[in-house]
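I have been asked to look over a protein record a colleague put together. Thanks in advance; the entry in question is below.
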Amino acid sequence: TTPCGSKASEHGVIPARDSEWSRCEIETVGGVDGNSSGLLSYGTVNVINHLVTQGPSHPSSTVLGRMQGVEARPDPVNIGFHILSSILFETGKYNGSSLEIQGTNRFNLPQRELSVVGGTGRFRYARGYALLDFL
């Protein structure tokens, strides 16, 4: 299990890996060498569980929920993952609702765009995009 932090940007609720106070998990469950494949190895499949916050990742930021799903590295040359995930809201007016996110997270880009392909509760029939900024 790999720990990581989570944050949201001004563009919306977006997970990232930049703090120690909030943790998430990335567990490699398969790959060319089975579950002993490296986190960034070609063919690796990971299960993700990121904490999602309203503002920058520091202890005063409001926790909104978690981003959970799977990611797989489909490209042997360029580092990146195809992501299928749900942002599960656990507090406030969106409690119990979710957003469904899909797309390729290309590590060589400073900002990544993923598709919002649906949702539940207050986000039923959601369509759009999510921007990921890694600081």
About this structure: The beta strands are 2-4, 24-30, 45-53, 63-72, 80-89, 98-106, 111-120, 128-133. The chain has a mean pLDDT of 78. The longest strand covers residues 63-72. The chain has one domain: 2-133.
